[in-house]
């Protein structure tokens, strides 16, 4: 047993002999450590691991691992391992302590070194700062020296140039002929340099550029008064500059003919030293074919007027003028590329070109297409009238402004191209507003004349109808809404034209108001004349009725003829009534068109002028007052016509037996009388015509007046008859028929009167003893009418109603 333990301890020591500090470095696996430690004591562990690697999971049930009894063998091994591990741990701690001391020592040395380095760096920075200050000072000194050197060089160069200029100035001051000048001034290869020097000499001689010291130097060098000498120099210099500029322009013209852009650019650049190149620009612009070639101008007119040179219309002009202006824009665009390559200041050259285009070429076109007409002797409508001129003017102005915008877009700098284009129309725009008003009046007069052409035929037919005493249509040209629609269309066109030709808000508002006033005058005059002509038809119908009024004592044959004529006159009256109502309806439509035109087109354009909108509304109301007066008079005549016809129908159709039938035992007739039926049918036709023409308060007032007149006419008519109780019932049926009909008037006051009338006729129905109860009851409010009606009873005398009425009146 002792031997076994000894061998176990020996094997355990050999097992832990592999323990070293390096074995615990890196990744550590306890399983591997344990297997390695126990492999000598428990070999079965290695066998089991080998079997698992070879057989896999299938051999687990067959292999046998360490048993529980083998655990005792591990105890000595674990104790030795613990002892060894403790020893290793102590070794590691000792080594760690030693390393800490070494690190602390080296850290202390490092800190000392860093402190010494900091002191050295601070000293180095201080040295660098001193060095930078010295370098900055040296640089400033060098810059000042450079400035002085540059200034000195510039002064030397200036002095050298001044000396040279003084020499040339003395040369110009002393010579008598330009041929005596030095070759420098006649050398074509040095023209630019000679031009620059000549300009400087002129500036010196004229005293504009040279300083006072230089003037003194020149005076000292000449040794005499500079006034007279400089005048000679100025004269010679001016002559030389002119000669040099002429040479340059000649070279420029020759180069232009050859289309040598380089030479042209060189000459233009040199010439710009004299007069900013204006002469070269003017010569180039003036040499363009569009300004000197007559064929170009003739081609423009041919494109505008056509082969036959016929009169232009606005539609043709717009298309043709656009084509001509498009060609001008293309020409200017091509010239722009040349100008940009030649002239130092292309915007100035383009301004001259565009100015010449507008003032010469465009102006010539406008003179041909816009001959200004005379207001005293305007062209006739057969020749196009003033409207033709205004339409052409508007198209030409609009297209010319579009042209100016395109030309400005090509490049003209600050040149006001649109302003120049606008000024071309200044003569036409001065009298534009007056011309527009004259044109509208001319159109109106032409339209009225056109309408009157057809009137004689209508008047002749109407006269023939009156001779034959037959119903005829109105003997006048009827009012038409299409005519006023044309008036409004003219006005809309004038407003559009005014907006184009008068773009400024305040003048535009003023002109728009005048144009609208023309429309108001036209519509007012046309509507008033139409209503007056419709009233003439009513007057003619009234005169026709009066011609056939006959007395009571005439023969039956004469009476029959008069009755037939009266029927024809009544038909004429009805026709004139309808015609006037149509005229009123169309007048209303005309006024509505004008108001709509004002709201949609005119009102917004008047806003820039304070009070213009309200003043225009007042003017519109005032202009329609004449038409309203004619309409009111005509409506009164219409009512009169209706009432007269009602009286005629009642007189012709009402029989004495209608209201006082004989007591023959026959049942009473409860139908309306024939006179009532005829009157209601006639009134229904008239009401239908009035309803289609009138509306609102006008309709209400007309119906109320018609109802009141009808009420009076019926009262007057019935007072011609005598009534018995059966007749009273028939009268009550008529009154009910009339009351039912007038309800369609929708006039409450009229309805009330006819309801009272239905109650009033009861005085013919009740017994004499019940009259006074009726009068004191439902007829209390119309006692006078009731008393007059009582007198119409057939038993008024026989029943002694008169005495009873007297007693009643005495009691009251």
From TrEMBL:
It comes from Ceratopteris richardii (Triangle waterfern). GO terms for cellular component: exocyst. This is Exocyst complex component Sec10. Keywords: Coiled coil, Exocytosis, Transport. Residues 78-187 form the Exocyst complex component Sec10 N-terminal domain. GO terms for biological process: exocytosis; Golgi to plasma membrane transport. Residues 78-109 form a coiled coil. Residues 193-455, 471-802 form the Exocyst complex component Sec10-like alpha-helical bundle domain. Belongs to the SEC10 family. Signal peptide: none annotated. Residues 48-67 are annotated as: Disordered. It comes from the Eukaryota.
